[in-house]
Design a protein that fits this description.
Length: 71
């Protein structure tokens, strides 16, 4: 391994815009347990599984159907 490297001719990563971004999200315990269980079965990290699920929802334009009850 070299002591120094020359990066003067280096190019910017063309995939940098596709990299993941760290965010903070609040999820209830049951949701986390659900995805952790699924991730163990699929043998992938649970955060990756949540990301895949959300990406699939976004790609298929899936929308949640909510109905609020008026008290």
């Amino acid at each position: 391994m070299r002591k120094e490297y020359d990066f003067s001719k280096a190019k910017k990563n063309p995939y940098a815009s596709r990299l993941k971004r760290q965010v903070t999200i609040r999820l209830d315990e049951e949701t986390i347990k659900y995805f952790k269980k699924l991730s163990e079965e699929a043998e992938i990290p649970y955060q990756t599984l949540i990301n895949l699920y959300l990406r699939d929802c976004a790609a298929s334009s899936r929308k949640l159907s909510l109905q609020w009850k008026v008290a």
